[in-house]
Amino acid sequence: MGSTLFRSGLTIYSTSNGILNTAGLVQVQGSAANINSTVGTAINISAGTVDMPVPATITSATGTAILASGGQVALGNSAHTSATPAAGTSLVSIGTQAVTVQGANGIQASATGGNTVQMQGGSVAATTGDAIAVNAPDAANSIHIQAGQLTASAGRAIFDGPGNGDTSVTLDSAAQVSGSIVLGDGSDSLTIHGTDISQITLIDGGDDVSTADGYVDRLTLAAINGPQPAAKFLNWERISLEGNSDLTLTGSSLATGSGALAGEAMGLVVNAGNTLRFQDAAFSVHGDLGNQGQVALSNSQAGDVLTVTGNYAGGGGLALDVVLGDSSSAADHLVVQGNTDATPTTLAISNLGGTGAATSGNGILLVQVAGSSATNAFTLPAPGYIDAGGFRYQLAQVGSNWYLQAKAAVVTDPGTPQIPEVPQVPDTATNLARVPTLGRWALMLLSSLAALFGMVQLRRRQR
């Protein structure tokens, strides 16, 4: 097809394909575009460009609304486009104007050299299949939903496959996604920036959680708050919390990766400034856990248990509920079936009504480590102890485990306070030294001598 320009808009109703483009440019100006195929594909493109910078409705009753095995489809953009993607690749973009794409499948991009799908607004809906599907045997794919609505009534909202190309997906805060996200083979990444994910039923990274096959799938949850089912997050070698997330995982377990690849830690990683909580009393992380933020078991109920089947790396905080009493006291605790590293984790202890008591044996168990645990892997906040009811609790490492041990607090006797002497102040008015005074005995002696002298004088007169 050569270059074709429709200046007054375009309306096509077809029982087969609506627009078929294998080369050149199809451009629609005017007020609106309406491409409707009752059976086939509304827009089918293998090369060239279909450009509709107007409000548009692209509909296929039983087929695919947009099928791109190459070329470019630009809908609802603010200006006309003339650039074309590289040969063997496809680009489908939806701008900020009112655009509706709907079919059994919404958008399918299957160029062997790689595919890019972008949404800045509008809506893409699939009635029985996939809303957005990309597939390249070995090349890279990119999906970026900045804004707009993506809905899959029965299938997948986003699908990557069956090729094993690396696919990158980004969802921004204004994106609305309903349905599942399923990525296939290859090293895929999904970054979610503050998106409401409550209507996403499954977030699947692809094949498994092992790096042995060379595929490494990474899920980044940024500014994600509130409760989410742990079972929603499937087949990710690395899951990281960023952007001040405060995520509560519901259910009993989460499977993720372990080890490191090129210096990058696999597993569940809680970065600084982020918080991970658990709704159930017992939760297992099947893989490694890195905690540079805050992992909170504290929920005003002691006895919760977090089990990490792999290794634990610290640097952040671990909040625990404990009834500060004797060694039988209820307490939350962390179980690590692997090893813990040497980066300290600060244990924030909330006392749930404990009145204090001396502990016996090892004390109150807080952290149980099956492997090795580095010295100072866990600490208490300053001043390094907790007082309750006249007893002082301190953290002690016994083997690879960590306990609270308590004994009666020692009270230091301050002693009897001394009254300081008040120094004599010289008489600065006269600057005269004090005249010494006679003592009591000297006065008595003088008085006696005076009396004796008087008697002697009296006798002499009598003679």
UniProtKB/TrEMBL annotation:
<dbReference type="InterPro" id="IPR026442">
    <property type="entry name" value="IPTL_CTERM"/>
</dbReference>
<dbReference type="Pfam" id="PF18203">
    <property type="entry name" value="IPTL-CTERM"/>
</dbReference>
<feature type="domain" description="Autochaperone">
    <location>
        <begin position="294"/>
        <end position="395"/>
    </location>
</feature>
<dbReference type="InterPro" id="IPR043990">
    <property type="entry name" value="AC_1"/>
</dbReference>
<dbReference type="InterPro" id="IPR006315">
    <property type="entry name" value="OM_autotransptr_brl_dom"/>
</dbReference>
<feature type="transmembrane region" description="Helical">
    <location>
        <begin position="438"/>
        <end position="458"/>
    </location>
</feature>
<feature type="domain" description="IPTL-CTERM protein sorting">
    <location>
        <begin position="435"/>
        <end position="460"/>
    </location>
</feature>
<keyword id="KW-0812">Transmembrane</keyword>
<keyword id="KW-0472">Membrane</keyword>
<protein>
    <submittedName>
        <fullName>IPTL-CTERM sorting domain-containing protein</fullName>
    </submittedName>
</protein>
<dbReference type="Pfam" id="PF18883">
    <property type="entry name" value="AC_1"/>
</dbReference>
<dbReference type="InterPro" id="IPR012332">
    <property type="entry name" value="Autotransporter_pectin_lyase_C"/>
</dbReference>
<keyword id="KW-1133">Transmembrane helix</keyword>
<dbReference type="InterPro" id="IPR011050">
    <property type="entry name" value="Pectin_lyase_fold/virulence"/>
</dbReference>
